Fold this sequence. Notes:
By secondary structure, the chain is an alpha/beta fold. The protein contains 5 helices and 4 strands; from the N terminus they run βαβαββααα. Strand 1, helix 1 and strand 2 (37-44) form a beta-alpha-beta unit. Helix 1 runs parallel beside helix 4 (111-126), helix 3 crosses helix 4 and helix 4 (111-126) packs across helix 5 (134-150). The longest helix is centred in the N-terminal third of the chain and has 17 residues, at 14-30.
Amino acid sequence: MNIYMTDEQTLLTSDQIELVEAILGYAADQEGIDKNSEVSVTFVTNEEIREINRDWRGKDQATDVISFAMEELGEDEIDFELGEDEPILLGDLIISVERCKEQAADYGHRFERELGFLAVHGFMHLLGYDHIEPADEAVMTKRQEEILRHFELRRGEL
């Protein structure tokens, strides 16, 4: 899977960006995602994600991660067949680094754990996982924790 990272304000270290890339690559492998797939990840401030959340979701507040799935068809959208060599566009993830730091402190674990969680959580949404119903939440949570455990990113560990 091709992963495109954007950190225009240099909010993360190169090691942190590589960690997100490794987590998403591993998650894609575990989920059987086609190697010809693409996902983009953009790291932003609270103000930037607030604007995106307001403009695209009608919620005028900062959030931690937003997922924009490309494979979901909206009303009046047309499904089309991809050519043989065309990549499968899974979607875009927007992660607030500021909110990530805040939540890591609130939950008592390392920043990298929260960063990994937000990346895999957003990615799972791109794949169709959801957590509205308790049974769906249990499935999604289990998959996320399995992926994070592979990287030794556990809750409550500083």
